[in-house]
Amino acid sequence: MSFRIGVxxxxxSQPSSTRLLAQRLAAATAARLGGDVELxxxxxxxxxxxxxxxxxxxxxxxxxxxxxxxxxxxxxxxAVTPIFSxxxxxxxxxxxxxxxxxxxxxxxVLAGATGGTERHSLALEHAVRPLFAYLRAxxxxxxxxxxxxxxxxxxxxxxDRIDRAAAELAALLRGRTTTNxxxxxxxxxxxxxDLLAAGLPD
Length: 202
Fold this sequence. Notes:
Blueprint lengths: L2 E7 L7 H17 L3 E7 L4 H10 L4 H11 L3 E9 L2 E2 L1 H8 L10 E8 L7 H12 L3 E2 L4 E4 L10 H17 L17 H8 L3
Parallel strand pairs: 1-2, 1-3, 3-5, 5-6, 5-7
Antiparallel strand pairs: 3-4
């Protein structure tokens, strides 16, 4: 069975630890799923100006529209944000602000975050998880936070957290009977004769 996973990274620098965590989460999930897995990466730093334009005009420029479509038509989402002032970044929040209502409803989501210190790890639970709950997505139990001390540390538990979260997302994906790809409302139109017959008296 094939799966397509959208991978959103809100890292601002290049190279970015946020992008690196997104890549590791995506690779671990793909390994857990096996088979045919397509990963669609969306780096929000490339769409910062388009996101601002979308907020003020109500219309997404073509590049941003493509990025949005990668997310809302995916079978699952991996979303990673840096933590600023004990919450997700403004760029991260803006992207999800411009999505259509219910576009993520029922979508399996793995949430991750990066920060300078372990003290900000609870931002995933008090900020990021409630955001996706509001959007009616299905967030896996394990959220993955990576502090600066996690990178390059041999005794870090980061690998274990990544693997556990990836296993949860893979299990959730395998258990789905439908995808998040929007249905075409005109794919099966009611024949005109049936519409006429429904309006005629017996």
